[in-house]
Automatic annotation (TrEMBL), chain A:
This is Heterodisulfide reductase subunit A. Keywords: 4Fe-4S, FAD, Flavoprotein, Iron, Iron-sulfur, Metal-binding, Oxidoreductase. Its cofactor is FAD. It comes from Desulfallas thermosapovorans DSM 6562. Belongs to the HdrA family. One of its GO terms (molecular function) is metal ion binding. Residues 500-529, 533-562 form the 4Fe-4S ferredoxin-type domain.
From TrEMBL, chain B:
Keywords: Iron, Iron-sulfur, Metal-binding, Oxidoreductase. One of its GO terms (molecular function) is iron-sulfur cluster binding. The keyword Kinase does not apply. The keyword Zinc-finger does not apply. It holds the Pfam family FlpD. Residues 15-137 form the F420-non-reducing hydrogenase iron-sulfur subunit D domain. It comes from Desulfallas thermosapovorans DSM 6562. This is Coenzyme F420-reducing hydrogenase delta subunit.
């Protein structure tokens, strides 16, 4: 019936499977399936001993297909692909059947039912495996050069890191100067170094490295190609005609470090618009430019009120920023220490919702309290109200949760709105790179814990505050992980991509162009085949989503690993009678 | 004779569920790891993305003996296609039309977005769908 030689291994997983599924019955039910030449059960298929046994079977029995019925493929797909590889079997002729998470564990209440289901699932896996063909990973030579978009603290540090690993760097910055937000900052915690100095030092480092090329007033305007080998176009000299120049280059990967915007309060938000109500950024400017006591319009500032969480952790309104901006509590507490150091007689009141001076910043918080700052906690449903008084001073009314919601009136010279971070408007960059945004409109990583700087666009990485609120040390840490991820691709000299991609049958295709518009990655191109135009999938660009396949009116497109034939024969196998 | 008819209480519908490798399949796995129960005549097949399901497979499955098709969709979380939900609902519409042309009820297909931690929603929905199909009776009459 089949000339395939398939080995099937059914796992007990200790008892995780065999306590709820009659694995021996499953083995008997599948051993005579067409193409099966070896059918065994094993206590732990992933153990070294069983892996060794499988390698031996594959070699001795000359197996050309492998099925392991065990846990979820999320756990061991790659383990068993490696087993296949070690034995000289093409890893894409291996199928993992999930009889643990999706069978034994979820039907612990039905031994007969679970056993029957396992038989069906394994038969399906065998049917699919019968129709596998050996596939080779797609190999692409990489260009040892990286494009870094954004020369703030994260982008600059990334450039230096890459250069030191021997990779060439194109560093581009939209503004006429480098340094981003940090360049504008004064003293920073913990060493009191100021932002300007930090950036100047990084700038020196960049200048010393011949393999970094920096362009200011530059934007990425085009990207094609794929991981390891992108073709990019950079527009230098602003977007108005004069002095404008387009530079083309090839790079192996792209690191996006475009940073954040400061939240801009709307008029009337906590009195914003009244003279004396400042954002945190405006207040820091005032602090950084003053020696000694603070003055405004010639009048000494004696009382300062800080209102926290402005623009962060919003619960209502249109598109609320629900996230915590995480740096602002620290920045405000730090600013208030600076302020009281300049004028020890200053009275400062911090109106907060929750104080999030995490980690070492907790010491700052204590320091602020020791220096006399008063902390009052408000309920976000009853936020402080800021009004202008007749004498020109400001009046802040707040109910303090820490003293049983007592109403407290504070007269202030300055009210500082502790504003958070918002995503930048990166519209054109998003279009060029096709980067996904999260619900909060910051760039989105693939996995927040396991793949924190990678994006769904292979070879494009994100770092720093363009990905979500971060302080500068967190930004630099993520920049360096983007460096590592880039280098891990580019230092090897080639990348290997999964070959489970779409394919067009040129015999069936009658070039209607439907699939080209269906593919958001631009992976389908027109080629000539026996004198006719047909569609062809660019294997380096195709992501293997399969989205084009159902849309082809001629039925010419199949996704490898999920072909029509495979899916239908799996369905048939699921439904075979169980005796 | 209760034994000869597959309808009613004794009828055990077979349901084919399409899930996706990175989003709904982990949610269904989680249902298993949490020992949540649903009928074992539900079988799951996983793909890269919901938008890749061909309506023809659904018709094939129903013709060959599945009584219901559940699509555990990527929804908004799809990492491949920004308009995945829209594509998937078109696929469902086309598949429903295909079923209808061939004399099957379009209600035999149900789609719902299932995320990677949606263990309980999946279990509840698949159980509810199972009951609906049980009431409808087998797809292949006679
Ligand atoms: S292969 Fe998976 S199912 Fe088998 S013993 Fe290992 S963990 Fe358990
Ligand atoms: S949709 Fe199908 S027939 Fe049309 S061009 Fe693409 S592959 Fe060819
Ligand atoms: S499978 Fe997805 S990425 Fe590949 S060609 Fe089709 S739509 Fe494009």
């Amino acid at each position: 019936m089949s000339d395939r030689r398939i080995g099937v291994y059914i796992c007990h997983c200790g008892g995780n499977i065999s306590d709820y599924v009659d694995v021996e019955k499953v083995r008997r039910a599948v051993q005579d399936e067409p193409g099966v030449v070896v059918a065994k059960t094993a206590m732990f298929t992933c153990s070294d001993a069983t892996q060794q046994e499988m390698v031996q079977d594959i070699e001795e029995q000359q197996l050309d297909g492998l099925v392991v019925a065990s846990c979820s493929p999320k756990l061991h797909l790659f383990t068993f692909r490696e087993v296949a590889k070690r034995a000289g079997l093409n890893p894409y002729q291996y199928t993992q059947v999930n009889v643990r998470e999706q069978c034994s564990w979820t039907h612990t209440d039905d031994y007969a039912g679970a056993t029957a289901k396992a038989i069906r699932l394994v038969r399906g896996g065998i049917a699919r495996t019968r129709l596998t063909e050996p596939l080779q990973p797609i190999k692409i030579d990489t260009v040892p050069r990286v494009l870094v978009v954004g020369a703030g603290i994260a982008g600059m540090r990334a450039a230096v890191g890459l250069a030191d690993l021997g990779l060439a760097v194109l560093l581009i910055e939209r503004e006429p100067v480098v340094g981003g937000r940090v360049a504008a900052w004064g003293a920073m915690y913990p060493h009191g170094k100021n932002g300007r100095q930090l950036i100047a030092r990084l700038n020196e480092e960049i200048k010393q490295r011949e393999n970094i090329t920096l362009f200011t007033c530059a934007e990425l305007v085009e990207k094609s190609g794929s991981i390891g080998n992108f073709n990019i176009k950079i527009r230098v000299g602003g977007n108005s005609g004069q002095g404008q120049e387009i530079i083309t280059a090839r790079v192996g990967s792209i690191i996006v470090a475009t940073g954040f915007d400061n939240y801009q309060p709307v008029a009337g938000e906590y009195g914003y618009g009244i003279d004396g109500v400042l954002t945190l950024a405006e207040y820091k400017e005032l602090l950084d430019s003053t020696e000694g006591k603070l003055f405004r319009h010639g009048r000494e500032i004696k009382d300062v009120v800080y209102v926290y969480c402005v623009g962060s952790r919003q619960q209502s309104g249109e598109n609320p920023n629900r996230y915590c901006s995480r740096y602002c509590c620290n920045a405000a507490v730090h600013a208030s220490i600076e302020a009281v150091d300049k004028n020890p007689g200053l009275h400062q009141y911090h109106l907060f919702r929750d104080m999030r001076t995490y980690g070492k910043y907790e010491l700052l918080y204590n320091q602020a309290r020791e220096k006399g700052a008063v902390f009052l906690r408000f309920d976000h449903q009853e936020p402080p109200v800021v009004e202008k008084m007749a004498d020109g001073k400001l009046m802040v009314k707040v109910r303090d949760l820490l003293t049983y919601s007592e109403q407290i009136d504070i007269a202030a010279d300055v009210v500082v709105l502790v504003t958070g971070m918002v995503p930048r408007d990166n519209g054109s960059l998003v279009d060029v790179l096709k980067l996904p945004l999260g619900q909060d409109k910051f760039f989105n990583e693939i996995h927040p814990k396991l793949r924190p700087v990678e994006t769904v666009v292979d070879g494009v990485f994100i770092c720093g505050a363009c990905q979500g609120p971060k302080n500068s040390s967190e930004s630099v840490a993520s920049a360096l992980s983007a460096v590592t991820q880039s280098a891990s691709i580019l230092k090897k000299g080639f990348v290997e991509l999964e070959p489970l991609i779409a394919q067009v049958d040129p015999e069936v295709c009658r070039w209607c162009g439907e699939c080209t518009s269906a593919c958001p990655y631009g992976a389908i191109e027109q080629v000539q085949y026996q004198g006719r135009a047909v569609a062809r999938v660019n294997e380096a660009v195709c992501k293997g989503c399969g989205g084009c396949a159902p849309l082809c009116p001629a039925g010419a497109i199949d996704l490898k690993g999920y072909t029509d034939e495979q899916m239908k024969s799996m369905i048939d196998a699921f439904l075979k009678e169980i005796v | 004779m209760a034994g000869t008819t597959k309808e009613g209480k004794g009828f055990v519908p077979k349901i084919l569920a399409f899930s996706t490798n990175n989003i709904s399949d982990p949610g269904i796995d989680l249902a298993g790891s949490s020992h949540m129960h649903y009928p074992p005549s539900v079988m799951v097949v996983s793909m890269p993305c919901t938008s890749g399901i061909k309506p023809g497979w659904i018709l094939h499955a129903v013709e060959k003996g599945f009584d219901g098709i559940f699509i555990a969709a990527d929804g908004e979380e799809c990492a491949y296609l920004p308009d995945c939900s829209e594509r998937a609902s078109n696929i469902v519409k086309n598949a429903q039309a295909l079923l209808q042309q061939n004399g099957y009820e379009p209600e035999r297909i149900k789609m719902s977005a299932i995320c990677s931690v949606c263990a309980e929603p999946f279990t509840n929905q698949i159980k509810a769908f199972y009951q609906i199909i049980q009431k409808m009776g087998p797809a292949r009459k006679g």
